[in-house]
Amino acid sequence: MIAGHFGFAALVKARARQAPLWALMLATVWLDVVFVPLYLAGIETIEWVPGTHGGYGAAIIHANYTHSLLGALVISALFGIAFGVAWGRRTGLVLAAVSFSHWLLDLIVHRHDLPLLPGDAATWPKLGFALWQWPWAAASVELALVVLGAWFYWRAARAVSVSAGTGRRRAGLASALILAGGLLVLALDVSAILG
Ligand SMILES: [Zn+2]
């Protein structure tokens, strides 16, 4: 899930205007960004669901540090603190919450692979509602997030530009870019379902 996270970032931007959109976008995928070096180092791994050749939703992701509940909370808190120092407490809190929203959205789609403690320390049951078992349903949730995000962003940006008396076209353009970008990422994912 990438498009859905970005859609959520646009949704938040409509409400938390003080936080730059790029920082919100980065926050929504921050856990995955931290995942990349750990993946390259072989510490976190991806396993394809037996009988599939990969593709959208066909992964069991052993991101036992970045995507453990405690790990996600710590990484999100650090992310929020770093930005909070620069931009103030309120923005830092928003960015920390948005970073942690990644884990909550992943919880809906992941296949029982999200541990509670880093490194799956206590071998407690892993979490995930496994919506990826039904790729079209998961893609529909992402589509809804992208469309809602672009729509709320447009409404908020238009309201700001109307009250300021300028930049109305810019609000429309930014929303169109959010929508087009989200749909493009989603289309690539959906082509993986079809292929
Ligand atoms: Zn993730």
Structure description:
By secondary structure, the protein is mainly alpha-helical. Helix content is 66%, strand content 4%. The chain has seven helices and two strands. It has helices at residues 3-15, 21-28, 30-40, 69-87, 89-109, 135-164, 168-194; strands at 45-48, 59-62. Strands 1-2 form a two-stranded antiparallel sheet. Helix 4 (69-87) runs antiparallel to helix 5. The longest helix is centred in the C-terminal third of the chain and has 30 residues, at 135-164. It is globular, with a radius of gyration of 18 Å. The model has no long low-confidence stretch (mean pLDDT 92). It binds zinc ion. Zinc ion is lined by residues 31-32, 67, 102, 106.
Record keyword descriptors for this entry.
single chain; 195 residues; mainly alpha; 66% helix; globular; binds zinc ion
SSE ordering: HHHEEHHHH
Task: Tell me, briefly, the overall form.
Answer: globular
* Helical coverage, percent range: 55-70%
Strands of the widest sheet, in order across it, are: 1-2
Question: Could you tell me the number of beta strands?
Answer: 2
Beta-strand portion reads under 5%
Average the pLDDT over all residues and give the rounded result: 92
Roughly how many Å apart are the termini?
Answer: 18 Å
List unreliable stretches of 5+ residues.
none
Structural class: mainly alpha
Describe the oligomeric state of these chains in a short phrase: single chain
